[in-house]
Design a protein that fits this description.
It is a single chain. By secondary structure, the protein is α/β, with parallel strands linked by helices. The protein contains eight helices and seven strands; from the N terminus they run ααααβαββαβαβαββ. The chain has one domain: Rossmann fold (3-Layer(aba) Sandwich), CATH 3.40.50.150. The relative contact order is 0.10. The longest helix has 25 residues. The structure holds S-adenosylmethionine. The site of S-adenosylmethionine has 23 residues, from β1, α5 and β2.
Length: 248
């Protein structure tokens, strides 16, 4: 099914994340053997995403196309990637389960020389070669600083956690310093920056993830010398996702 098929568009329009994840869970056994073969032959990111069942794939959010654009040339050189939010939703208990790790396994297979670190507020049973898990809250600076001490530096950092404005800001403020020069910091699901349920609001609302990005735009344009300000070389903003590239 192509990314823009009418079925997929309808699913996006009428079903919530949990319902879409449940459907993709049901069709996975049929899709899986074909994907295994495909990833062995091509190993493109979208096939890996669908094989492991993360919502970054073209079956759901469609971020893999953008990740491929920015990450393909980095595949052999990436040594450490940190992702906030391990996933593994359960119809009754939400994310409060030990399941998850779909995107972590995708990154492990995509970056052959990288250690993949996942963090989550809930205890997740993620283990295996080149996979690490730490439990903690992305808004807790003490937890984040310990993480930095133990794992820095990161070639790539991805925020796919709570999607709450203050959490995204707290993580960015603390973790940006741990991104390698030339590295990338990505924030997903930014349409929620306009949703009150995620501390979002209409354009101009302070404290949202969109406000953080707009401040970064001002910062980048002003080329501030303030050492506490991020040193951003480039920003790539798409529908729902932003990539911050650190200056070398
Ligand atoms: C959308 S899921 C992540 C999906 C996963 N990255 C993937 O692509 O397969 C969001 C995750 O963020 C976690 N989360 C929510 N609030 C958090 C917080 N304050 N700190 C860390 N993780 C949090 C949830 O428990 C959940 O597992």
């Amino acid at each position: 099914m192509s990314n823009s098929s009418p079925l997929r568009q309808m699913a996006r329009r009428f079903l919530n994340d949990a319902q879409r994840e449940r459907i993709s869970y049901c069709i996975r056994p049929v899709e899986r053997p074909m994907l295994r073969l495909r990833t062995r032959l091509v190993a493109d990111l979208d096939s890996l995403a669908r094989l492991h069942g993360t919502d970054k794939s073209s079956s759901t959010n469609g971020y893999t196309r953008l990740y491929e654009t920015h990450f393909a040339s980095r595949r052999p050189s990436v040594r450490r990637l940190l992702e906030i939010g391990v996933g593994g939703i359960n119809p009754g208990r939400g994310y409060e389960t030990t399941e998850g790790g779909q995107s972590l396994r995708m990154w492990r297979d995509y970056f052959p020389n990288a250690e993949i670190v996942g963090i989550d507020i809930h205890a997740k049973a993620v283990s295996g070669p080149r996979l690490r898990f730490e439990q903690g809250d992305q808004s807790d600076p003490v937890f984040l600083r310990t993480l930095i001490e133990n794992y820095r530096p990161f070639d790539i950092l991805i925020d796919d956690g709570s999607h709450i404005g203050s959490d995204i800001t707290a993580s960015f403020v603390t973790l940006w310093s741990a991104v390698k020069p030339g590295g990338m910091y990505v924030i997903e699901d930014l349409s929620l920056a306009y949703d009150a349920g995620f501390e979002g609001g209409p354009p101009g609302t302070p404290g949202t993830a969109a406000a953080l990005i707009k401040a970064a735009v001002d910062d980048t344009l002003l080329r501030s010398n303030d050492p506490f300000r991020p040193s951003i070389a480039a920003m790539h903003i798409y529908g729902g996702i932003a990539f911050f590239e650190k200056a070398k």
